[in-house]
Specification:
It is a single chain. This protein is mainly alpha-helical. The chain has three helices and no strands.
Length: about 100
Amino acid sequence: MDNNYQQPPVPQYNAPIPPQDDKNGLAVGSLVLGIISIVCVGWLWGVVGLILGLQAKKKKPGVKEGLATVGIVLSIIGIVAGIIASIFLIPNLLNNLHGLS
């Protein structure tokens, strides 16, 4: 008995490509820092959030752009609130320090 039977070749196929992740960490970071800058009245958090939001819009236009826009707006509000708070707090702190001496 001649055993010349060959198995058919295994079909070659490319593995399925996983779906692309459309999350944008920069946009989410900008949103979070924008919220923190308003709640903590910290202009420094707002500056970092603003930079992240602008980078997010520049890097991935169209992808989660709404998050980046909201992060930018909240960061600007936080910056302005922080500057206004600093303007009112610095003279008060100086008066308190002057009163201690």
